[in-house]
């Protein structure tokens, strides 16, 4: 069973991986929020992903889901980077799961 980790953890590789995951989660929140608010995909994203016309017509659906998934990643990583009581860690896990369910609901319910 894996023990609790924190920023004071002596294993620098595990800490570096957690910080990379946090950075990616933050990037998902920023990118997804930008797409959902502006209702436009970044040009580079549209080129690289080769989005079809149907996919390009639903930026709110894709951006909102992406932002919620990023928020879930951030909330899930918080107990590993900041020392919190066990009960708070469990509550944060529940919030992360609710955010994933919210992303799925956003994906399923938001249509053009």
From TrEMBL:
Residues annotated as transmembrane: 15-37, 66-85, 91-110
Keywords: Membrane, Transmembrane, Transmembrane helix
Name used for this protein in its record: Uncharacterized protein
Annotated organism of origin: Micromonospora siamensis
Lineage of producing organism: Bacteria, Bacillati, Actinomycetota, Actinomycetes, Micromonosporales
